[in-house]
Amino acid sequence: MRKRVLILGGARSGKSSFALREASSAEGRKAFIATAEALDDEMKIRITKHRRERDSNWQTFEEPLEISSIIRKISGEYDLVLIDCLTLWVSNIMMNDMPFYAYADELVRVIMDDTSPALLYLVSNEVGLGLVPETPLGRLYRDNLGYLNARIAAAATDVFFMAAGIPMKIKET
């Protein structure tokens, strides 16, 4: 069975570090799909830091929107794909007024496709544990990310929840 690993947690909970550590220990050709965009100086610094954390065994694809297309395009070339992160991806889709549900459902189809990579890691924030967002846009974002996380978790073989840098496995098939 192809492994699909979802890693959830709050902001700065250690999701990305855990995903990279776990994925780096696997054998084979590795691809990293980054969804962040360097739109300000802080994000430029964060992206540079994250790039330095990956060694030369990783091929990086920076794609803020069309991650399903990238997965299809590189299928067969890589044994492992790590997507970091779905949180920013949902935000990117919403800020570009793109059809969220069409993109979310397509991603689920792609990751379940038999031709997708043998091992797939997906990183996302769990936003349903905090306060109800004050604005309609904030609530829509929370609802959209919750929908995507639930769909990916249902399709995943393994799901981890990160808290204070500690991974807790909450699903294994």
Short description:
With 173 residues, this protein is of the alpha/beta class. The chain has helices at residues 15-24, 41-53, 67-74, 86-95, 100-112, 136-155; strands at 3-9, 30-34, 58-62, 80-84, 119-125, 158-163, 166-172.
Question: What does this protein structure show overall?
Answer:
This protein is α/β, with parallel strands linked by helices and 173 residues long. The protein has one domain (3-172): Rossmann fold (3-Layer(aba) Sandwich), CATH 3.40.50. 43% of the residues lie in helices and 24% in strands. It has helices at residues 15-24, 41-53, 67-74, 86-95, 100-112, 136-155; strands at residues 3-9, 30-34, 58-62, 80-84, 119-125, 158-163, 166-172. The chain has a 7-stranded mixed β-sheet, sandwiched between helices. Helix 2 (41-53) links the parallel strand 2 (30-34) and strand 3 (58-62). Helix 5 packs parallel to helix 6. The model has no long low-confidence stretch (mean pLDDT 92).
The CATH topology = Rossmann fold
The CATH superfamily turns out to be P-loop containing nucleotide triphosphate hydrolases
Overall number of domains: 1
Provide the β-strand percentage band. 15-25%
Helix-strand layout with pairing:
Blueprint (H helix, E strand, L loop, with lengths): L2 E7 L5 H10 L5 E5 L6 H13 L4 E5 L4 H8 L5 E5 L1 H10 L4 H13 L6 E7 L10 H20 L2 E6 L2 E7 L1
Parallel strand pairs: 1-5, 1-6, 2-3, 2-4, 4-5
Antiparallel strand pairs: 6-7
Helix pairs in contact: 3-5, 4-6, 5-6
Annotation keywords:
alpha/beta; globular; 7 strands; Rossmann fold; 173 residues
